[in-house]
Amino acid sequence: MKKIGFVILICGVLFSCNDTKPKNGKFRIVTTTSMITDLVQHIGGDKVDVQGLMGAGVDPHLYKASEGDVSKLSNADMIVYNGLHLEGKLVEVFENMERQQINTVAIADALDKKELISSALFASNYDPHIWFNVEYWKQITVYFANKLSEAQPEHKAYFMANAKKYVKELEQLKVELDAEIATLPVDKRRLVTAHDAFNYFGKAFEFDVVGLQGLSTATEAGVQDVQKTASYIIEHKVKAVFIESSVPRRTIEALQAAVNSKNHNVVIGGTLFSDALGDPGKPEGTYIGMLKFNVHTIVAALK
Amino acid sequence: MTSAQFEIQLIASLVAIACAIPGTFLVLRKMAMISDAISHSILPGIVLGFFLTQDLNSPWLILLAAATGVLTVVLVEKIQQTKLVKEDTAIGLVFPALFSIGVILIAKFANDVHLDIDAVLLGELAFTPFDRIYYDGMDLGPKALLVIGVILFVTILLLLAFFKELKLSTFDAGLATSLGFSPIILHYGLMSVASVTTVGAFDAVGAILVVALMIAPAASAYLLTTDLKKMIALAATFGVFSAISGYWIAHFLDASIAGSMTTMLGIVFLAVYLFAPSKGLIAVLYREKQQRIEVYLITFLLHLKNHSEENERHVNHLNEHINWQKVRSKTVLNLALKNNMIRIDNNIVSLTKKGETFTSKAIDYIVTYEDGLIEDMKDDFFLFRG
Question: What is the ipTM of this complex?
Fold first, then answer.
């Protein structure tokens, strides 16, 4: 029976088409999430060819690889990923690929682990949603620009100039966001969402962040979680709760119903971008646009 | 084809064979869903492994997952032994209980860790070529290939060593016990192999594909043969065929590899279900139709035998008399003519010698139900094939 299998396998080899690599001489970078794709495009500019594995609106938890990703990965000169287990088992794969002369960069390595939010019981496990802190993103920009310059020393000046320009834009963004959030009194800065993606955001902008369900997607919000969150909303007179693209809407709707049954009115403030950017071409399709959109949505709803 | 593409197909083919062997026995023992059950019940093993090591990448998580898989099998067996519930009920009782223990443990103690089956165990075929094992700086090949290779090797060894015992205990547990084999031990052995294969294959190729590779090829083979050896061989062939053709479909559509392979498995089963020579849907429909016509034929011949008067045997008269429509009477008439059972002279139908013998034999069979008499008729007529 194995013979038949191998005969078929050999037929597969014979009939397969020979993939011609898209060789335009550019340095090929494969990225995971859309935030990272955006960052790499800003630094690499037209000197690199960037291909994202997870497109717009694709949640890293729900990402399923397609056959094309195999050739993307095998032709890559460099792989840039988030790390901190955001990409699940893929992180293991990438760590292994380093030994295959493929340059891999985990952007989380740019940050001081002591600053990161770690699990209360299991200290070596960190919250991976690092992109919600603009300061971190600045550090990551510089870190990545250095890594890219090491791999492509001939374009070092170009990458560094791009990084400098982008850091300026991020600084400008931070000023704008701070100004917008400043219009919201501190006691109204309470962000209630479906799952724990916004802890870094809360830390950076002094929000009290309450996530209805934990980081894992295997567990769902329990009755107690809903009740606790509902009492929190009533106690602090929170005006709006938010939906994320990656979490079922009904969880938040159950919360809304629980709150409304106790004679406190809470509205759904809108959908926030958490683990992926919006469609490319729209303002939310870039990191800067996404953060602006989120802050705008939050401030408008909580005011 | 790049080496990555070749390796993916090789791994998928080995997984297909490794799944086909226990899969065939599971399908025969009506325990096919155990592989799906294992995909859920391993969660507490993963959670415990994480609590012990505090590391999501530790191999302990996978080892404990395999242990929980075996535990699932043992519990299912224990419940089943009480004879109070059936196999599928026992499976349905055990795996939700184990899975929910895992969920509660996560919710209680590890809500701030990204801990679920997907994050730890479920592999993605597309990435297997990039997850390689090195020894002393030497590339030994993809990790999944080695893991599956070892599992397949052990499975084949066990199959060769215990083939007779497995066969006997699968088809006649009582006889196996009286001959001195313990069907319980064989059962545990088989289930443990299924469990380890499932967990190992999950790590390489993901859950749905494993469940599909265990069940669909074996179910297809089941429709084609009653010989156990052939069934295993056919199941392995179907699995490998679906894996490779599914890969190329994924290549041309730029789609999920596991998804395309699973689709191919579905298509293979559908084709076998429709076109299998004896158990297939088309064969069954054809046989039923033939049998119906043969019943008419016998009725018709009996009528002729019972009536000597000419007006009862006139071609046109038959229509109204036996109350058949034109088309049907024509079919039957033609069939009888073709078999030289009747003769038509001047539109009067009468039995030939052969027709006479056939009719008496058929009557004898219907009256006595003795098989020996009609042995020679079985080749020509479906009706007498049992």
Answer: 0.70
